[in-house]
Amino acid sequence: MTIRELTVVKCGGTASVDAAHVCADVARLVREGRSVLLVHGGSDSIARLAGRLGVPQRTLVSPDQVSTRYTDPATLEVVILALAGEVKPGLVAELSRLGVPSAGLTGLDGGMLRARRKAVIRSVVDGRTTLVRDNLSGRLTEVHTELPETMLRSGFLPVVSPPALDEHGRPVNVDADRVAAALAAALGAEQLVLLTGAPGVLADPDDESSVLSTYQVPTAGAPDRFAGGMALKLIAAREALNGGVRSVRIADGRVPDPVSRALRGSGTTVTTESRSGQRV
Fold this sequence. Notes:
Elements: E1 6-11, H1 19-31, E2 35-40, H2 43-53, E3 59-61, E4 67-69, H3 73-97, E5 102-106, E6 113-117, E7 121-125, E8 128-132, E9 138-143, H4 146-153, E10 157-161, E11 164-165, E12 171-172, H5 176-186, E13 191-196, E14 214-217, H6 228-242, E15 247-252, H7 258-263, E16 268-272
Parallel strand pairs: 1-2, 1-13, 2-10, 5-10, 13-15, 14-16
Antiparallel strand pairs: 3-4, 6-9, 7-8, 11-12, 15-16
Helix pairs in contact: 2-3, 5-6
């Protein structure tokens, strides 16, 4: 069931993204009558907690240069503790302080997010492609919207993060940008805003003045010229557009009013080769 004029916002997990600015802007939008669902990651919090607990961290880089977190059992525990025990309560508390009733959810709650565990992942190590079989990450397969719909219709702002449930009912890590895209599509959102620690998609990653006003993501495969987290954001944007979301923007999460600025046109509008961001 579609929530009228829903905006899904993904708050990046790096320290450069200002969560206080994001919450203040989201609170303003809610007071103006918009429906908002907030999705968050927490890469810096995960890394900090892993360091305190002595859990080594590793990044997997696929042959097409898309990087993801290696999630062994110990790292999955850290991910859940950091997201559900630190980042999410902080966001909910700040929204509450601003007068916005909100509640924190992971993909486990109500079976909201379902995924299929990746049995094998190809990763490039020292120039050679290796097969990783013990990674507890998954690819989203289903979104059950009953819980976030009920919350939104009751006047609560859902604050959502990984993990998801795999096909055996066990937690698996999933990418938060793709969670935001999947929820936006499943809930019939009008807009998806992916906030990051950059002013948008950059033609030159070392030059913040090289922001692309639009970027047309290819219909399949990894986006050309982009690697790491930006490649995953562009893949998530494509999935949202293919799922019927009308507008997807990648924008700066470090500035005041980051969501409002994005909705007014700052950052990068993502389109696909088969769509221009419009529903068909």
